[in-house]
Amino acid sequence: NRNSFAGIAFEGLGNCSMMHESPSPNVSKRLILQNNLEVLGWSNLPGKIDALFNICNFLSEDTVEYRRVIEEEATNIAKTLSALFKPEVPLETAGSYSPDEFLNYLVKISLKIFRNKFLLENVAYEVLVELVENILQRLLMEGTNKPEDGTGKKNETALGNDSPMKNLNSLMLRILETCNPNTMFQLLFDLLIKHRKTCGFSKFIGLIIKCILKLTKILDALLPNLDVSKLFLKFHLYVCECFNENLKNNDDLGLK
Predict the structure, then answer these.
(1) Cα–Cα distance list, 65 to 3, 32, 102, 121, 176 (Å)
(2) Which residues contact 250 (CB under 8 A, 6 or more apart)?
(3) Torsions phi, psi of 246, nearest 5?
(4) What is the pLDDT of residue 188?
(5) What SS3 state is found at 57?
(6) Per-residue pLDDT tens for 86-119?
(7) DSSP state string for 64-88
């Protein structure tokens, strides 16, 4: 009964590796992973949930053979998951599953997947940018599209404290903590440059700035691994981008 996944997923996915049998050693590990990524792209909702768990199990293996496959398929994994977070992609409803429930499945399993530092280190930069951008946009959408309850507050979902918005925040923090800090600073400044010119994206700019501030709070710990010269160069390019425009708005959030 696929409805049993609800209890499993919302209890923290602690024993994810126990939910499916390990792949047969006679079957290509890469083919197993690629098949599950394909299923994740086209299958119905229950099939997507199965594929997510299988990918999670695969990435929990820590042998030379598995690491070689992960290294080669890291970009494909991140790109497939990124597509599911796109805000323009509607989250389907199937049977007793609601869009919020599936988003929670996706986010909770992604939390386990993206704690894999080796995986994130091997994702192509442009795909990593797309992944972070889609997660932030989905987070913004979850924060603005919920109806209010008449008091100015957003309605609580049926999931209560296990809401998609809360879990998306946790996922973004996980990626910030796990990624190479040089890559993350570069990525966030690139997103600032891209979106600060876009009308109506002030809230999105605010999310990006919050991510940068999260990193600066642990700057002392990051310094040994931080390329400070590249960080200052990226900051300089961003400031130059700001002052190349006719700044008429003194409240420009991206510049503040």
Answers:
(1) 34, 13, 31, 17, 27
(2) none
(3) -85, 95
(4) 93
(5) helix
(6) 876 666 555 556 777 888 888 999 999 999 999 9
(7) HHHHHHHHHHHHHHHHHHHHHH-TT
Nearest to 128 by CA among 72, 71, 188, 58: 188
Could you give the angle at the alpha carbon of 112 between the alpha carbons of 145 and 6, nearest 5°? 60
CA–CA dist 121, 128 (Å, integer): 10
Contact 55, 40 (CB under 8 A): yes
Name which of 29, 81, 73, 72 is nearest 52 in CA terms: 81
- How is residue 113 written in tokens? 């997947």
Q: How much is the pTM? A: 0.76
- Cβ-count burial of 187 within 10 angstroms (0-12 exposed, 13-18 middle, 19+ buried)? buried
What is the Cα–Cα distance from 153 to 188, expressed in whole angstroms?
30
| Structural Rg of the chain based on CA atoms | 20
In this structure, are residues 113 and 56 in contact, taking their beta carbons and an 8 Å threshold?
Answer: yes
- With beta carbons less than 8 A apart as the criterion, state whether 90 and 51 touch: no
Which residues in 195-214 are b (16+ Cβ under 10 Å) and which e? bbeeeebeebbebbeebbee
Q: How far apart are CA 44 and CA 27, in angstroms?
A: 25
The amino acid at 256:
K
In this structure, is the dihedral angle defined by the CA atoms of residues 186, 107, 82 and 208, taken in order, positive or negative?
A: negative
d(CA 23, CA 14): 20
Q: Identify the CA nearest to 132 among candidates 112, 99, 110.
A: 110
Q: What is the pLDDT of residues 162-217, one digit of tens each?
A: 678 888 999 999 999 899 888 998 999 899 888 876 655 678 888 998 998 888 88
| Residue 168: closest CA among 50, 87, 74 | 87
